[in-house]
Amino acid sequence: MNQAELIWMNGEFVPWDEAKVHVLTHGLHYGTGVFEGIRAYDTPRGTAVFRHQEHLERLRRSAELYYMPLPYTPEQLRSATHELIARNGLRSCYIRPLVFRGYGQMGLFPLEAPIDVTIAVWEWGAYLGDEGKQKGIRAKVSSWRRIGPDALIPHAKATGQYLNSVLAKIETHKAGYEEAILLDGRGFVCEGSGENLFVVSDGTILTPPQSASILDGISRRSVIQVARDLGLEVVERDIARAELYLADELFMTGTAAELVPVREVDDHAIASGRPGPVTLALQAAYEDALHGRAERYADWLDLVPVPAPST
Ligand SMILES: Cc1ncc(COP(=O)(O)O)c(C=O)c1O
Questions:
Q1: Do 289 and 300 meet the contact criterion of CB atoms below 8 Å apart?
Q2: Is the Cβ atom of 197 under 6 angstroms away from ligand 1?
Q3: Could you tell me if 156 and 279 are in contact, meaning their C-beta atoms sit under 8 angstroms apart?
Q4: I need a surface site. Which of 64, 120, 265, 302 has the fewest CB within 10 A?
Q5: pLDDT for 185-208, tens place per residue?
Q6: Using CA positions, which residue lies closest to atom 15 of ligand 1?
Q7: Is the C-beta atom of 208 inside 6 A of ligand 1?
Q8: Which residues pair with 120 in a beta bridge?
Q9: Is residue 281 within 8 Å of residue 289, measured between CB atoms?
Q10: Neighbours of 68 (CB within 10 A)
């Protein structure tokens, strides 16, 4: 991976190689952590974090769902992130805040273990590849179902929960596909291993609802708004597996992947097997929003203040 110079750990800026934890860290054993994936873009107005406050609010809510009071306010984390990006000299980057139960208490009752908070930033290109973003990716429905609300909390972005995504990702990677699609516990379409999913059918954009165990993706919400602003109809409803195969177009959204067309599912080409017009129009409009080229979405970008020159 592309290392940066500094990582923020519990209020301090520490060199990348010194950002370490004890092997008896609670979160390492039991998955008791929550995190975010955020991106900052090099925009015409300077480096800007996309929907920063929304991501930090989701982090706070994920932590609360697992009974972890955040020792820093979202505003403190926001300024720490700004300073971290500036001190690392990055113009664009991926941002990974992590809140986890730390060292000092073992066993499943975690409430006496400390809560540690770290933020890392580094340069990270298109998660599913530049070619995937242009031509579309091949996906496969995984035999693993997405975690359900009866066992875990799909709305939380919690570290332990990602074992589910990891199993699906490994299975489909070994089978030769670029991404996994998980069904929910009822057998309806849920999402990718790290992305939300959209189907274009007869000119309407469909996407699974909150009740289908999805992660409430911030890219999902943003793309829904961009689509509606373009005059497109977006409907949140349950989607049957065969609707994927019969779709006119398919695409996925996520912070790491951005907006990626899907050209094939389970060896069925989606329509012509090439990204369709709705996907391409939305992708272009969304890229403009991410990169600060769309005035309409300017308030989605949190500008990183340029540090004052030292005297
Ligand atoms: C399981 C899962 N679903 C969906 C998403 C997309 O969410 P977002 O758009 O907020 O990055 C992610 C990525 O964070 C994810 O890990």
A1: yes
A2: no
A3: no
A4: 64
A5: 999 999 999 999 999 999 999 999
A6: 194
A7: no
A8: 96
A9: no
A10: 23
Residue 187: left if φ>0, alpha if ψ -120 to 50, beta else—which one? Answer: left
Say if ligand 1 is within 6 A of residue 195 CB. yes
Residues 255, 63: Cα–Cα separation, whole Å: 19
Q: CA-to-CA distance for 165 and 174, rounded, in angstroms?
A: 14
How confident is the model over 158-173, as a mean pLDDT? Answer: 98
CA of 297 to the centre of ligand 1 (A): 20
3-state secondary structure 46-66: EEEEECHHHHHHHHHHHHHHC
**Averaged confidence pLDDT in the chain:** 97
Which tokens in the block code for residue 156?
């939380």
Contacts of 210 (CB under 8 A, 6+ apart): 155, 216, 236
Phi, psi of 300 (to 5 degrees): -85, -10
Which residues are tagged catalytic?
Answer: 157
In sequence order, which residues have a C-beta less than 8 Å from that of residue 230 and are 6 or more positions away? 281, 282, 285
Calpha distance 189→197 (Å, rounded): 8
